[in-house]
Specification:
The protein is an all-alpha fold. Helix content is 80%, strand content 0%. The protein is built from 4 helices and no strands.
């Protein structure tokens, strides 16, 4: 092999390596672009799910909060009265009327890891709201079990504790929802 054919052969190999490297690089960039697009779509779908779920949960809380506050007031008045003059007829119980929160969007976002592609402050706010909902549901499950053991009329103290807590939590949840919905709307607007 003479020097000219060796340099041509070397140039050909270098050119092939450069072209192959460029092809691999472009393929990796295309894959990254597809992955980012998929992540954006997943985050956007999760945000839309959160928004509709939060609005439904907000409506459910709003629908029972006055009943819960009124019943708590009646229970406290019952206990404030002279024990000899107490009468359960003054308490108007129309069931527990708890909120059974929807949390499918949260569960799906956790399963698909969509929260990793959502603004961290928004994800933190969502986590707080869903955490308080879980606490509320846990308390509701506890009082429902207690009612199966003792009828409501025999368990006014337990009901007073239950409503005392949820009457504090319901306004907090409503405030969280009212703060989250505009944040979600902004995040959805930025993604379009």
């Amino acid at each position: 092999m003479d020097k000219a054919s060796r340099s041509g052969w070397l140039l050909k190999i270098v050119l092939e390596v450069v072209l192959i490297s460029l092809g691999v690089f472009l393929a990796l960039m295309a894959e990254q672009w597809r992955e980012r697009a998929r992540d954006r779509e997943l985050a956007e779908a999760s945000l839309r799910g959160f928004r509709s779920e939060i609005l439904r949960n907000r409506k459910a809380v709003e629908g029972v909060k006055d009943y819960h506050a009124g019943l708590l007031k009646e229970l406290r008045a019952y206990f404030a009265a002279d024990p000899k003059k107490r009468t359960a007829e003054n308490i108007q119980i129309r069931g527990l009327q708890p909120v059974f929160f929807e949390q499918t969007a949260w569960d799906l976002a956790l399963a698909t890891q969509a929260l990793a592609h959502i603004d961290p402050d928004l994800a933190l706010g969502l986590s707080r709201a869903y955490g308080l909902q879980r606490t509320y549901l846990g308390m509701t499950g506890g009082i429902m079990q207690a009612i199966y053991l003792r009828p409501m009329e025999e368990n006014f103290e337990g009901l007073t504790s239950y409503y005392g807590d949820i009457v504090l939590w319901e306004p907090q949840l409503l405030q969280m929802y009212d703060e989250l919905v505009p944040q979600i709307d902004r995040a959805l607007g930025e993604r379009r």
